[in-house]
Amino acid sequence: MLLYFTILFLVVIATAIAAIELTNLIWVLVAFATLLTEIALFYFSLGFPLLGAFQLAVYAGGVAILVLFAILTIGEREEEKKESKLAAGVAVAVFITGVIASVWTGLHTKPYLDISLQEIGKVFVEKYALLVIPLGFTAVGIIYGAYYLLSKKLQGEE
């Protein structure tokens, strides 16, 4: 199990670096969505399927789709498309590794535990509330950044 968490940790670090370093916005979004999916895998692996499902639905699903919509609405400038093939290859390799790790984790997930909603809420508030705060700020920052870029583009067209 230690090997699994080590590999998952390395994939999370690699996708975070890819999300920061890539210049093509679509590849940045792919790396970001993979990063959020890998964080959900941590929750599933630790036996918290509710938190994992929340992470997948809200962050990896909703935020990634919102950012994709903003990128496709704004478009990209031509000078931003200068990206090395090595960076694209690394992003694809990280994405494929994330998909394989996701499938592997899904096959080895513990069965559903009989836990009440009150116990889940207590554990969430005691142990994971501080983790949700930075994730929420990250989501708000992404939404604000997408709005800012869209408003700049619309002002430039007028």
Description:
- The chain is mainly alpha-helical.
- The protein is built from five helices and no strands.
- The model has no long low-confidence stretch (mean pLDDT 75).
Low-confidence stretches: none
Mean pLDDT: 75
> Strand-and-helix sequence, N→C?
HHHHH
- Give me the CATH architecture, please: Up-down Bundle
Strand content: under 5%
CATH class type = Mainly Alpha
Number of helical stretches of at least 4 residues: 5
| Separation of the first and last Cα atoms | 57 Å
Radius of gyration: 18 Å
Structural class label: mainly alpha
Helix content: over 70%
**CATH fold field value:** Four Helix Bundle (Hemerythrin (Met), subunit A)
**Count of discrete domains:** 1
Form type: globular
Biggest beta sheet attributes: none
Q: Got a strand count? A: 0
Provide keyphrases for this structure:
0% strand; 5 helices; 158 residues; mainly alpha; Four Helix Bundle (Hemerythrin (Met), subunit A); globular
Short précis:
By secondary structure, the chain is mainly alpha-helical. Helices cover 83% and strands 0% of the residues.
Summarize the SSE layout with pairings:
Elements: H1 2-21, H2 25-45, H3 49-74, H4 85-107, H5 117-157
Helix pairs in contact: 1-2, 1-4, 2-3, 2-4, 3-5
